């Protein structure tokens, strides 16, 4: 499915789920990569089948021009909102946003821009750049745009947020800062600092128990 603005994605459902069944929706940035390289839908299917996870659907969103679109872009956010509101079938009772690196940043930015869009966030190794934490990223073409957002993000609707980050990666300092900022605004946030780096095996390794816990908390 695609909409104006270039966002494209596939809707995954568990086996034998009727099209008209109303289920929570996990909205995943870099969705095809999460599936191919971290086995996301297989993990969800096994968890649902084993009754460890609630029944849900997942919107696997392709990244498009990832660096531009995920860098706290208002244009991208408006396209994402249109995409989610135009999805066929019954409206999800809750939406959970999920992303890694710049995709995590873009999910938080979407929540800031429209607080009602998501009911929980699962953000892995978010690229929440600041000049103090990330001087090595100054040559990234959208660095100034990102830091203008992370300096003072709008955080007006506290929802559950789970952050994970590898102990060996450069984003750890900015994830600690963002966790503190979310707490200051009343968000029920947890930051899990785990062995590993900025890579798909580390992100997959954080699914159990941290993705599980957030989905169990957020889904009715």
Regions with little confidence, pLDDT below 50 for 5+ residues: none
The CATH superfamily is known as Alpha/Beta hydrolase fold, catalytic domain
CATH class (first level) name: Alpha Beta
The strands making up the biggest β-sheet line up spatially as: 1-3-2-4-5-6-7
This entry's quaternary arrangement is single chain
Count of the domains? 1
CATH architecture: 3-Layer(aba) Sandwich
Shape: globular
- Mean model confidence by pLDDT: 95
> Treating each run of at least 4 consecutive H or I residues as one helix, how many helices?
9
Sheet with most strands: 7 strands, mixed
Quote the beta fraction: 15-25%
Helix content: 25-40%
Series of H and E elements: EEHHEHHEHEHEHEHH
Number of strands: 7
Radius of gyration: 16 Å
Cα end-to-end separation: 26 Å
Say what the CATH topology is. Answer: Rossmann fold
Derived structural class: alpha/beta
Summarize this entry quickly:
With 220 residues, the protein is α/β, with parallel strands linked by helices. The chain has nine helices and seven strands.
List keywords for this structure.
seven-stranded mixed β-sheet, globular, 9 helices, alpha/beta
């Amino acid at each position: 499915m695609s909409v104006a603005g270039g966002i494209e994605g596939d809707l995954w459902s568990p086996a034998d789920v009727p099209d008209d069944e109303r289920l929570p929706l996990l909205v995943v940035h870099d969705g095809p990569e999460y599936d191919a390289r971290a086995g996301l839908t297989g993990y969800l299917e096994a968890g649902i089948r084993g009754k460890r996870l609630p029944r849900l659907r997942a919107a696997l969103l392709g990244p498009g021009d990832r660096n531009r679109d995920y860098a706290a872009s208002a244009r991208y956010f408006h396209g994402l909102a249109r995409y989610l509101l135009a999805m066929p079938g019954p409206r999800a009772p809750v939406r959970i946003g999920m992303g890694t690196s710049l995709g995590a940043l873009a999910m938080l930015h979407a929540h800031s821009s429209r607080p009602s869009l998501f009911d929980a966030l699962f953000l892995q190794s978010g690229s929440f750049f600041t000049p103090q934490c990330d001087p090595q990223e100054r040559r990234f073409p959208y660095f100034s745009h990102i830091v203008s957002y992370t300096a003072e993000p709008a955080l007006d609707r506290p929802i559950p947020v789970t952050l994970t980050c590898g102990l060996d990666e450069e984003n750890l300092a900015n994830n600690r800062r963002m966790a503190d900022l979310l707490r200051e605004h009343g968000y029920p946030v947890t930051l899990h600092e785990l062995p590993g780096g900025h890579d798909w095996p580390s992100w997959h390794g954080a699914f159990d128990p941290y993705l599980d816990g957030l989905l169990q908390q957020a889904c009715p």
